[in-house]
Design brief:
Layout: E1 3-7, E2 10-13, E3 18-25, E4 32-39, E5 46-51, E6 58-60, E7 68-73, E8 78-83, E9 92-100, E10 115-116, E11 120-125
Parallel strand pairs: 2-11
Antiparallel strand pairs: 1-3, 3-8, 4-5, 4-9, 5-6, 7-8, 9-10, 9-11
């Protein structure tokens, strides 16, 4: 089993920044691709970003490309999501997820992932 714990969410004004963290425990995160998803109230969970085992490959949904940056520190078993130029439509609960994978792979489907965190709320005010 792998446990994932997100942190760093909060309330920020439009145009501001937040950095989310996802700490992994229970398994060596270096064998896992990691992803960030979000779910706004009344909407389905959507993919935000994914990063491969080593961090060499990343992928973003178009809505956040150029504003968000996913990164990881395998020595700390932590993945990050730096969010800049935040917009009210970024308001959601943000979840991190992990998937045991081969090198270089990233994943965009929620059902690809094996483990999930409990989520952290991000609220962007106009």
């Amino acid at each position: 089993q792998m446990q994932l714990v997100e942190s760093g969410g909060g309330l920020v004004q439009a145009g501001g920044s937040l950095k989310l963290s996802c700490a992994a425990s229970g398994r060596t995160s270096g064998s896992y691709a990691m992803g960030w998803f979000r779910q706004a109230a009344g909407k389905e969970r959507e993919f935000v970003a994914s990063i491969s085992r080593s961090g060499g490959s990343v992928y973003y949904v178009d809505a956040v490309r150029g504003r968000f940056t996913i990164s990881r520190d395998n020595a700390k078993n932590t993945v990050y999501l730096q969010m800049n130029s935040l917009k009210p439509e970024d308001t959601a609960v943000y979840y991190c997820a992990s998937k045991l994978s081969v090198p270089g792979a990233t994943f965009r489907r929620a059902d690809n992932y094996d483990y999930w965190g409990q989520g952290t709320q991000v609220t962007v005010s106009p």
